[in-house]
Amino acid sequence: MDIPPYHSGHIAYYVRRIAGGVWLMKSVERNADLDDITEEDIEEGALNDDQLQALWGRTLEEAQNEEFVEIVAAWLDAPRKTFSNDFDSTPALATEPR
Predict the structure, then answer these.
(1) Contacts of 12 (CB under 8 A, 6+ apart)
(2) What is the total count of domains within the chain?
(3) Using H for helix, E for strand and C for coil, what is the string for 45-94?
(4) 44-59 pLDDT, tens per residue?
């Protein structure tokens, strides 16, 4: 069983038609707890528990750049006229902070 990654941050969804009537929705998540953290903050011990957990076992740069990507939905045999051509060529469906 896969355990979902810890994160408290940003999630974006992308929808794309891959063939005929097959559409996939992908999510890209990243942790925003470390966005404004510097190496100086780490050296001074100025991190809260959430920031320490997000940093655990990695460098600050690694933790700030980590993304979790997964396919979250698939639509098989969608009618060909379900979406406009404009929508089909636009990868971003929605973006929302968590």
Answers:
(1) 27, 28, 29, 92, 94, 95
(2) 1
(3) CCCCHHHHHHHCCCCHHHHHHCCEEEEEEEECCCCCCCCCHHHHCCCEEE
(4) 999 999 899 989 999 9
Q: Which residue's structure tokens are 């794309």?
A: 16
Tokens, residue 59: 């460098």
> Residue 42: which H helix or E strand, with range?
helix 39-43
Determine, yes or no, domain membership for 2.
no
The whole model's pTM is what?
0.56
Structure tokens given for 67: 């993304």
| Enclosing domain of residue 81 | 9-97
Cα 31 to Cα 54: distance, rounded to the nearest angstrom: 7
Determine the Cα–Cα distance for residues 98 and 95; give it in Å rounded to an integer.
10
